[in-house]
């Protein structure tokens, strides 16, 4: 079994996404995505696109591509959560609640 990466990376990524939302940074993909003229629709388009790419990678049994697409999907889902005004802690609390 592979060693696991530190799950704190999700919290760090969330912090960057929130910072970009609160303090837009020129040249930042996250800033560009969140400030697109389409609004949240642009973020949701990316969630849909990445979902499809993830599904195809899993279906085609391409492990490296699956991990890459899962990372893309997770990132865009986090951006969508922020754009929707939902805090990551609410999602984590829901997952914790379901685990019991």
Tally the helices: what do you get?
5
What series of H and E elements makes up the topology? Answer: HHHHH
Helix content: over 70%
CATH architectural grouping of the domain at 39-100: Orthogonal Bundle
Backbone structural class: mainly alpha
The global form is: globular
**Taking Cα atoms only, what radius of gyration do you get, to the nearest Å?**
15 Å
CATH superfamily of the domain at 39-100: MazG-like
- Major β-sheet profile: none
CATH topology of the domain at 39-100, by name, is Helix Hairpins
pLDDT below 50 for ≥5 consecutive residues: which ranges?
Answer: none
Overall average pLDDT = 95
Head-to-tail CA distance between termini: 26 Å
Total strands: 0
CATH class of the domain at 39-100: Mainly Alpha
**Proportion of beta-strand residues:** under 5%
Describe the structure.
The structure is a single chain. The chain has helices at residues 8-22, 29-34, 40-59, 63-83, 88-99. The chain is mainly alpha-helical. It has a domain at 39-100: Helix Hairpins. The longest helix has 21 residues, at 63-83. It is globular and about 35 Å long.
